[in-house]
Amino acid sequence: MKGFIFDLDGVIVDTAKYHFLAWKKLAEDLGIGFTIQDNERLKGVSRTHSLEILLALGNVEATEEEKKEWMQQKNEDYLRYVNRMDEKEVLPGVLPALRLLKKKGAGIALGSASKNARIILEKTGIIFLFDVIVDGNDVSEAKPDPEVFVLAAEQLDVDATACVVFEDSVAGIAAANTAGMLSIGIGEADVLKEADRVFPDFTQIDVEALLAQSPKNNQ
User: Fold this and answer.
1) Which of 9, 135, 168, 196 is the catalytic position?
2) pLDDT in tens, 48-77
3) Is residue 7 annotated as a catalytic residue, yes or no?
4) Are 62 and 99 within 8 A, CB to CB?
5) pTM (2 decimals)?
6) Nearest alpha-carbon partner for 93 in 191, 186, 210, 211
């Protein structure tokens, strides 16, 4: 059996826009300038590390208590957007790919840094398609550490080299490669150049071909 592990933000749904709005609001409250380009640095990164990057941008020092309060504030603002999500938020080509993998009996897992992953999958009506969900509540190390993908493979009971990872971030691709998994970048080839293969979106991916492909170490 093969395992297919999906990142969430930027792969299944585009919640990056909501993260940006929530981080930008917090940054403005703290008097820190925050742009779309700054937001790119937060992709695939844990909430704690994202806050550290934000504070570094403004040279802002804070106590642990303040950091906890600000992360909670950011998450509450983000969840206001998430609670309005529905099935229309699923990116093009993703649902047919998931349904085909399910039909073929492949193991399907989510491997995401998001602590809100289950809420998003429920809101978009696709949580039933996943055999395993590993999110930010289940891991102690953030990508590029491979922990989230290794744990997903273990729970799928599939060898890491028989797993395919779909990722849109540089950190996520690095994590997949470190785990010995086939890394499929979703996005721009010049950004995700360390990925084994890169596609602009799921409408361009031949899932049948991935099912038939040999494990990464046998290519």
Assistant:
1) 9
2) 999 999 999 999 999 999 999 999 999 999
3) yes
4) no
5) 0.84
6) 186
